[in-house]
Design a protein that fits this description.
Elements lengths: L24 E6 L11 E10 L5 E10 L9 E7 L18 H12 L3 E5 L15 H15 L6 E10 L1 H16 L6 E8 L5 H6 L15 H15 L11 H10 L4 H7 L19 H9 L10 E6 L7 H13 L4 E6 L6 H5 L1 H13 L1
Parallel strand pairs: 4-5, 4-6, 6-7, 7-8, 8-9
Antiparallel strand pairs: 1-2, 2-3, 3-5
């Protein structure tokens, strides 16, 4: 059984106090040392204001880590970390749980390079409401607002910042990159670029085909059942007008219900005997407005970027089909966007994160050099 979440003395699961404009810092506490990472000198847990998937005022939490090196003149440059899939339930909140060995190593690497790290949990994880899984615009707003809020702490942070993400967070990072300048307008922040690995760009095309006869990409990891349950649960909550339950099998409805509270590895185990087509009793595209809703909910733009993009893809990835990243890269290029693609032939969904550091580290260093 997983350990209960450790809120470090800041439990915001039922927060009902004042919120303020997006980016407002509401509270900050020291993060329990057991939840910090190797490369951090100090670590904090913060509560801040944002907006949710219904465009309502909402709160989010984040961890803030500072490097062991002294802050340079002007403060430490900042990396916003966008985490991968953990689940939708409050018990899954990253800042209330120990980081995985991979993420500990990865975040410590950036701290060792002299960056402070702001690691948003995403609105609804550890705060009221349901986290809106793969909701591009809402998640981007939450990440930007976390960075703004961190700059109101009594910590020397530079206005220069970039965003780095993996898997769900790869999509969130690229979405953040698209709207970073717009969402941070007036804050004084200086957005520089993005690094994304395992990026589920274009997944809305797969979700648009959802139904009992849908074609599932070959060689998908069984964790895809959990991903499907999270997508259905989040879309169902964000757009109740679609009545997605009308096109779900009893097993599909039960899976989506469980997805609202069960963390990813437990959910993947519970759904191991399902198939993604088995979620559906009929094609969701037959629901009026469904395709437009999916595009609006999880579509990641392929134009309008004002800073460079780094995409890393492992060709052995069985969680997010590599073709999604490769096709997204091609669309970005066709639209004249500033994108760099690095391919790792022998790496899978997880190992690409650390493998990409050899390329993404100088990429980001160059972005901050100007």
């Amino acid at each position: 059984m997983a350990a209960p979440p450790n809120w470090s003395g800041l439990n915001a699961t039922a927060y009902a106090g004042p919120i303020g404009p997006p980016g407002t810092l509401i509270d900050t506490v020291p993060l329990d040392p057991a939840l910090s990472v190797r490369g951090a000198s100090a670590a904090y847990r913060i509560l801040y204001a944002s907006i949710d998937q219904h465009d309502r005022p909402a709160v989010g939490t984040a961890a803030v880590f500072t490097p062991r090196t002294a802050a340079p003149q002007g403060g430490w440059p900042v990396i916003a970390w966008a985490h991968g899939t953990v689940g939708l339930g409050d018990d899954c909140t990253p800042s209330a749980n120990a980081r995985s060995p991979r993420d500990n190593e990865y975040l410590s690497h950036w701290l060792d390079q002299g960056y402070a790290v702001v690691a948003a949990d995403y609105v609804g994880l550890g705060t009221p409401g349901l986290m809106s899984y793969l909701n591009a615009r809402t998640t981007a707003h939450g990440i930007v607002d976390a960075v703004i809020a961190a700059h109101h702490m009594d910590v020397p942070l530079s206005p220069r910042w970039a965003v780095v993400g993996q898997s769900q967070g790869g999509g969130a990072a690229v979405a953040t990159a698209r709207w970073a300048t717009e969402f941070s307008a007036g804050s004084g922040l200086d957005y520089r670029g993005v690094v994304a690995t395992g990026t589920p760009a274009g997944v809305e095309a797969l979700v648009g085909q959802a139904g009992p006869q849908m074609m599932v990409p070959p060689n998908l990891d069984p964790i895809a059942n959990a991903y499907a349950a999270y997508i259905v649960a989040a879309l169902r909550e964000a757009r109740p007008d679609l009545n997605l339950d009308s096109a779900l099998t009893p097993a599909g409805r039960a899976a989506a219900d469980r997805a609202e509270s069960v963390c990813v590895h437990e959910l993947a185990g519970a759904l191991a005997d399902m198939t993604v087509p088995g979620f559906f009793s009929g094609p969701l595209a037959g629901i009026p407005g469904y395709l437009e809703a999916v595009d609006q909910f999880m579509g990641i733009p392929d134009a309008g970027f004002d800073r460079p993009i780094f995409l890393g893809v492992g060709l052995q990835d069985r969680d997010v089909p590599p073709d999604l990243t490769l096709r997204f890269h091609d669309r970005l290029l066709a639209n004249g966007q500033p994108v760099v693609l690095k391919v790792y032939p022998d790496d899978d969904h997880s190992s690409t994160v650390l493998a990409s550091m050899a390329d993404s580290t100088p990429f980001l260093a160059a972005r901050f050099a100007g």
